[in-house]
Amino acid sequence: MSEQSIFTREAQPGRDDVLLRVSDLALHYPTYQGVFGGQAGAIRALDGVNLEVRRGQTLGLVGESGCGKSTTGRAILRLCDATGGRIVFDGDDITHLKGEKLRRIRPRMQMIFQDTQGCLNPRMTVGSIIAEPLNEHGVLKGRKKEDRVRELLDSVGLNPKFGNRYPHEFSGGQRQRIGIARALALNPDFIVCDEPIAALDVSMQAQVINLLKDLQKQFSLTYLFISHDLSMVRHLCDDVAVMYLGKVMEIAPRDLIYNDPIHPYTKALLSAVPVPDPLVERARQRIILNGDVPSPANPPSGCRFRTRCPVAFDRCATEEPAWRKMAGDRWVACHRAE
User: Fold this and answer.
1) Which listed residue, of 147, 284, 300, 336, carries a Cα 20 to 30 Å from 110's Cα?
2) Domains of the chain, residue spans
């Protein structure tokens, strides 16, 4: 791929407002047992995920640990092969792309990882780490590549002269900035941010979030922001999707989710977010969910959430809720939402 094709993409007239569409995405890991290793079942890591991410905006993906948030991001980037469903990126179905076709789409879709220590090779200098995508795709060489690395370091708020240093010489927040610079190297359209602030202290979290917002405006980036921190999601994201046990329960614009949640699971999650007003905090009711999250190897019949739902009724056990559109550009999967 040429330097021109990566760094100077022109806007195409008449493009769809939605950059990424995910429909009924499934990812099942087979389980085996017995002497001959026969397949006994499957772990349903993803089981019918539906998402849309609009150009230049941020979709927040929230939910409990183990619900499939990170797996969704990796499946979208084709780091693992989906069992079913469709992934449509910029109008092209990339669900089953392989070989050179998949390689050509890679520069447009990148990822920022949570583990700032583990995602950077300790034996490589920072300059080499940032230049790795450029080397892999052969887009820049020599002085132009060095200039690009310095430019990327400067864009994430680091001294361009730091290229000869090693990752252990930087703080956690600085290492995350290096990871962001590497993700920006090929000038992507779409970035999966997989809990990029979870391992940082509060002051560093705010700095990284503000950096992501600034970069989004500067480079017209589109984000899928995976996080447990609902207050940061509210600050950064335009839309919010709520996941539970491999499925999206509700997706809506940020203000609708936070001010008027419909799904019982969304209500329970938001009730756990502290309010910075002592009077309001003392007066509001919290929804305490009973029991544990079921195993993805043996999910409940009907609605996945019914075993912990405070308003479940008989229909929830026998019929899976349909994924339906509600008023205000909201989608929800709940029998009570009818």
Assistant:
1) 147
2) 262-338
